[in-house]
Amino acid sequence: MTSAWSRRTFLATSTVLTAAVGGALTLATPRAAADSASSDDAYAALRATWTALILGEGFSPTAEPFKSRLAALGTQARGWRDTMAPADGSLWPDAVYADPDPDTDPESYGFSAKMAESFIRLNTMAQAYRQQGTGLTGDSALRTAIVTGLEHLNSQVYKAGQARYGNWYSWQIGAPQALLDVCVLMYDALTPAQLGRYCAAVDHFVPDSTVASYTGTSTGANRVDLCRVLALRGVVGGTAAKIALARDALSPVFPLVTKGDGLYADGSFIQHTTVPYTGSYGSVMLGGLGLLFALLKGTAWEVTDPKRQVVFDAVENAWAPFLYNGLVMDSVAGRAISRGEVDDHRRGHPILASIVLLGRGASAAENTRWRSLVKGWAQRDYYSPPLSNPSLSLTGLARLKSVLDDTSLTPLPEPEGHRLFPDMARATHRRPGWAAALSMADKRITYYETGNGENLRGWHTGSGMLYWWGDTFANGQYSDAFWPTVDPYRLPGTTASRKVLANGAGGDWGAAMPDVNWVGGVTDKKRAAVGQYLKGLSSTLLAKKSWFFLDDTVVCLGAGIRCQDGTAVETTLDNRNLGPVGNAPFTVDGSAQPVTRPWSATLTGASWAHLGGHGGYVFPGGATVKALRENRSGRWRDINTGGSTETLTRAYLTLWVDHGQNPADASYAYQLLPGASEQRTAVRAADTGWLRVLANSDDQQGVSVPSLGLTAVNFWFGGTVGPLVADAPCSVLVTEHTDGTATVCVSDPMRARTSLTLTWNRAVSSVLSKPSTVTTATTGSSLRLVFGDLSGTRGATQTVKVRPA
């Protein structure tokens, strides 16, 4: 561990000679020496805190899983030490950072990444030097190699005056974070002159002006990363002003936003202006804030901005809705879905660990509840147990193990209910036994993000992709090589043209967005009606798509499907990853289908289908559905230029509706029943009165379920559907309860209405509750609701409770 009496502390507490004006030497006063010692002690304490935060604490290096992980860390560090070969332009032969033509093209991005990677390797070596149980703890040869590497990089590339090239991130976040971590870990092995040069390099690439305004690359998760750099620069260099700047520069991250990057009132988190990123950049922000809160807690620089409570509230408002059995849903992971080494579970585990860390700065009640939530998620992750995650840091392992071992905690179950996130065109639905997520796109939210050669074929992930998982099954559905092997034109839930798209079609960094307004829906927090006016990416495709999220099913409707691409248009009902073997039984109307691959069939007049171990599908009134069981092969390199070239093969069962070439007004209707048995699926199909499709046209889409007392309609245009009449576009959900009351929920997904009139053709005896923006009137056998300015609700739900006559 860092010595309590560092070289600087010793000097500060000894008799100090200082240079006076004019060059004469004077003896420092005892008070001056004491002040200097106090200041130095503060920085020593910060270094000790940071060391514990990045190395972990409270675990035994001789107990698993830590013993094996520490040994692996030592092996990796030994490899970096033994292969280090300082030369002009590189510290390792396979990590050349010298750019012969420095600019900001993809080639330069690669060279700058190798520069940052070189610091990351040194950081690995420094951790092995400081950690117990690595086989290299305190190794003098390793210490010499680390210092040699730092000096090499500082003299050649990462130094004051050097012009940067390639990716800004490498120079302002990637490299300095690793460099400063090494400086903390190796502080007693470095001279003041060396530390001064390294700090000067950081000052050059990350000046104070980097956080002067909350714009560009200095927002959200990036801002938190930059503040981490500034804070550690202050700790290493003993500069109070830098630490204060880092603390103060965090404040713009805390308030809720209404546009651009950051957290929204509805729980959305946006990065890169147009990309839902709770599960990737959001994870970075959460982890970074937890580290900085913990580093500065109890110091003169503690983060005390009261708005930080927004971040604490976001744990359950923004992150928890997208966590399920330890995974974080791919619908909010952006281009990270194309990174083969880290799947949805491995992305989820660091978020769990960050929530535990953040809890240290929250209230006692929040901390206990969050730890109980984390314990539940971690215990239920049967597919990829967190303590077996090779990409999870030792600190993350230690935090999660402390929670799992805490017998005072009762693990909390998965929350139930529906969450709508209109500010990022997403929705999640949770029921006993399963969960689902929906991804859409509109004029504010991109179809998908590509960039840095990543996520090259995510084109249709915003075209109504419907993900779903079971409580004890199918948690590896999108984890097990799904993204490199799935047909990218047949993502589950989507309607898409088979028009061939180029890798990265639409442009980098979320540039492509459809010019549509009606995307969103309404929810009573248990059920929901959600709709998407779909315009295809680089396509003439148009469609109206609706999802009605109910107790045991998702009712999916599509209408007005038209396209002039000269290619087929398909709606993919589902595309299940069956793993390498893929022998799950598949039945249609009770008849078993072949398990051989390849197999395909056109299911004419099908009433229902069932996939063993997954769930059922019901086609109201019968439908013509195509089915395909096949092996699909692909490489991560196909969708990410930095991915593995290994060919992977997985079996799939795909169901889709073929709308034909250049459809003019096609439609579809089906029910998805996650986890349903074959018998329950057949019973639902036979109960033809359970679901009534009230409308499925280009103007309106709506359903009723009498047994639930439910009527739900997406009005693309005003009109009449069943008992509901709307004078303008809106989304409506009416539920009649067994206690004789009813709830009417309304929203304007377009966020544009200054007035909306909804009539429910039902006699009402009294209005029990309503928002202040609504006036009501009963006329005979109908209730008339006049909503005021809905544009200010940002697509949120307004509710009126009534007592029918």
From TrEMBL:
Annotated ranges, domain Polysaccharide lyase 8 N-terminal alpha-helical: 50-375
Boundaries of every Polysaccharide lyase family 8 C-terminal domain copy: 692-757
CDD domains: GAG_Lyase (cd01083)
Domain Polysaccharide lyase family 8 central: 418-677
Signal peptide: 1-19
GO molecular function (one): lyase activity
Record key words, sorted: Lyase, Signal
SUPFAM superfamilies tied to this protein: Chondroitin AC/alginate lyase (SSF48230), Galactose mutarotase-like (SSF74650), Hyaluronate lyase-like, C-terminal domain (SSF49863)
Pfam families given in the database record: Lyase_8, Lyase_8_C, Lyase_8_N
Family: Belongs to the polysaccharide lyase 8 family.
Protein name: Polysaccharide lyase 8 family protein
Source species: Streptomyces cavourensis
